[in-house]
UniProtKB/TrEMBL annotation:
Sorted UniProt keywords: ATP-binding, Biotin, Ligase, Nucleotide-binding
Taxonomic lineage of the native organism: unclassified sequences, metagenomes, ecological metagenomes
Protein name in UniProt: Biotin carboxylation domain-containing protein
Record's keyword annotation contains Nucleotide-binding: yes
Record GO terms (molecular function): ATP binding; ligase activity
Length: 135
């Protein structure tokens, strides 16, 4: 793995870019019209425009992000948080495109999205949990 596309903006993207630099990975920022001069764009080794200022036209467009990763020949995609980070379908699309997904497996994202399922998994794994209605 040499090139990582960060599918996010702002401070989280900057922190991921900093980590990429420390680990000697080439960082690729994505940006919308409104973020073209953003700090994450300036800090990254490379940047790619992915659409209009509205999130649904850019940062929430899984197809545009995967297209950008392919264009940049990225080996991996790091979602950051928010936007598509908790979207199991996006994670699967990334994997299906032959790109490394830096995050939980799609089925884990689904499981953790349901509080009851997540709690049951934690209990089965002997992880400490906060007392709740079922204790």
């Amino acid at each position: 793995m040499k090139k990582i596309l960060i599918a996010n903006r702002g401070e989280i993207a900057c922190r991921i870019i900093d980590s990429c630099k420390k680990l000697k990975f080439h960082s690729i920022a994505v940006y919308s019209d409104i973020d073209k001069n953003g700090k994450h764009v300036r800090k990254a080794d490379e940047s790619i425009h992915i659409g209009g200022s509205k999130a649904q036209d850019s940062y929430l467009s899984s197809d545009k992000i995967i297209e950008a990763a392919k264009k940049a020949k990225a080996d991996a995609i790091h979602p950051g948080y928010g936007f598509l980070a908790e979207n199991d379908q996006f994670a699967q699309k990334v994997i299906d495109a032959g790109i490394v997904w830096i995050g939980p497996k799609p089925n884990t994202i689904v499981s953790m999205g349901n509080k009851d399922t997540a709690r049951d998994l934690a209990l089965k794994s002997n992880l400490p949990i906060c007392p709740g209605l079922n204790n």
